[in-house]
Structure to design on (213 residues):
């Protein structure tokens, strides 16, 4: 579409959004910037800007960008709320994230991403029973790297290393489908290495620097 019409900013912003979602930040952000330069109100470009700030850890700037779309017509409210919830979680503000996620789930009770993120928010609030309910519900719909990683962290926080390691391992086996899956898979591999160094309590061969399960 862009070859046919280089000024097709809907296609350019959409391409930028797709590149960002795959983890190609440099090329994706270039498309987003070019689209915004010509039309600052291009909603696809605005949400792409929010995603770019999110994946680079600029949570405050991501929230500012996504605020432009929350509650506005155009069909991007749900996605903007999901990504804004991620930014709030990055800022350690689980309550604000929960508010966005509850709005989405009130409209779409089985929204996989909202269930997954609400599970992460419950974990941040140390309500692990509710976290496991939401995360297991998300995984039951579709296995994702991030889903298993988040559930493994909840198990680990409850000192259930066997289930945690099993979920971390599953997270390394699945094919990542988003930039968030890529990040979760990298962390899962690191977690497996850490857990492999831990030995049961009472093991006479435990190394001096090994943790005790």
């Amino acid at each position: 579409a862009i070859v046919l019409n280089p000024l097709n900013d809907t296609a350019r912003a959409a391409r930028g959004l797709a590149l960002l979602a795959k983890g190609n930040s440099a090329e994706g952000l270039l498309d987003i910037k070019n689209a915004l330069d010509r039309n600052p109100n291009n909603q696809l470009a605005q949400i792409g800007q929010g995603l770019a700030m999110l994946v680079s850890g600029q949570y405050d700037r991501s929230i500012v960008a996504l605020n432009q779309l929350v509650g506005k017509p155009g069909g991007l409210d749900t996605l903007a709320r999901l990504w804004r919830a991620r930014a709030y979680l990055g800022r350690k503000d689980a309550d604000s994230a929960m508010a966005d996620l509850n709005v989405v789930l009130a409209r779409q009770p089985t929204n996989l991403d909202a269930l997954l993120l609400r599970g992460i928010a419950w974990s941040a609030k140390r309500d692990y029973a509710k976290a496991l309910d939401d995360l297991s519900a998300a995984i039951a719909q579709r296995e994702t790297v991030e889903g298993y990683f988040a559930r493994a962290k909840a198990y680990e926080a409850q000192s259930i290393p066997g289930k945690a390691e099993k979920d971390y391992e599953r997270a390394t086996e699945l094919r990542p489908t988003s930039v968030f899956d890529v990040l979760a898979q990298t962390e899962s591999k690191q977690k497996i290495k850490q857990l492999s160094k831990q030995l049961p309590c009472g093991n006479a061969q435990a190394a001096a620097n090994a943790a005790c399960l």
